[in-house]
Amino acid sequence: MKRISITLMLLAPVIAGNAQQVTEAVSMFAFDLYAKTAAGNSSNFVFSPLSITPAFGMVALGARGETQKQLDEVFHFQPTTNFHSELGKLQQKVLKSAGDSVEICMANRAWLEKSYRVLGKYSKALRRSYSAKIATADFVGNFEASRLLINKTVEADTRSYIKNLLPEGSLDEMTRLVLTNAIYFKGKWEVPFDPKRTSARNFNLSSGETVKCPTMLADDKFGYYVGTNYQALELNYRGNKLSLLILLPNEDTPMADFERNLSLQLYQQATKGLNPEKVTVLLPKFTIETSLSLKQTLSDMGMPIAFSNAANFSGISGKDDLKISDAFHKAYIEVSEEGTTAAAATAVVVAVKSMLPANTFVANRPFIYILRHKDSGAILFMGKVENPLR
User: Which residues pair with 242 in a beta bridge?
Assistant: First the structure.
């Protein structure tokens, strides 16, 4: 399984904790953004709260006044002197979960217009809290070359999965600062699916239509929980430090109804209720890539000032001349038998046998997935599968 995520923020001049608090802040934002993204959306999507939150954490270090207040409220940042340092430590803790079969890379970067001066205090805070690499770029003299340089770096940070992130026209001579956060994840299942057991099976869409998609099959012990109107299944990655949690609404519970009650509390209930049980699992293979325009989304969520001429980011340069001109987020997810990239295959349709063990997890309808760090509970990636074929 592979996950890639990248978040960018472009800043242009205006014209005329503790550890548990940090984890909960990231998680609360994840569910807030999920609700906003899922509203009226019957498509697949994926995003990474552990990519978006640090990117905006870096800019929040320079926010002041009402701008800072709105940022803090939307991202659930706490007014403590070490909150951002703890967020950076959470990233490092997740990075340490990597091993022989799990690869995780994170990169925080700040691209600064070479003629623009930022406060030494701000640069120091970026390095201290987020271990951010700071580089200069010639946005004023050659913004197109700068765009290509940033895209090339992003591509390298994400093992070539995110290409041409910044389209033509996304930068101009007014750009002063570009903040990026990239996450790359590749992990192998603790209990792999046998490719020989993968076959084409029915998947029932929210629209009432049915499609046939390559579906994996496994019989083993997995973390399993049954809620009031859903099932939860946990698939561990090797090393048992990270896992993929799948929330599957009951057949008589429409996804839209389930999403209205989706919350941090439900997530915590599901993870605490997981017990190792013998389960027969049927899970479709899927690959999803999503591009989110965060400017309007975050404005609607409660922080419009940051994107307006009324923004106050004087903590960055000492001058009240910056606003966020745009914000981009791209994420990619691929789920297959071993966790590595595999071509989808179509086979003869095989129905589920009638004699199944007591615990069955048949993901033949839309479901929600959450890639999480088990020790801290931090959510790395989150999304929904409405149609595995898209």
Answer: 373
pTM score of the predicted model:
0.88
Which of 382, 333, 384, 306 minimizes the C-alpha distance to 49? 382
pLDDT of residue 349 exceeding 50? no
Distance CA 52, CA 54 (A): 6
> In Å, how far are 9, 116, 179 from 12, measured between CA atoms?
10, 11, 12
- Looking at 13-22, 175-184, 268-277, 286-295, which range is the least confident one? 13-22
Structure tokens, 204: 């029932």
| CATH class name, domain 195-284+344-385 | mainly beta
| Residues with Cβ within 8 Å of residue 27, at least 6 apart in sequence | 49, 264, 267, 377, 378, 379
At how many degrees (to 10) do helices 49-60 and 120-130 cross?
A: 150
Instruction: Say which CATH superfamily domain 2-187+288-333 falls into.
Output: Antithrombin, subunit I, domain 2 (3.30.497.10)
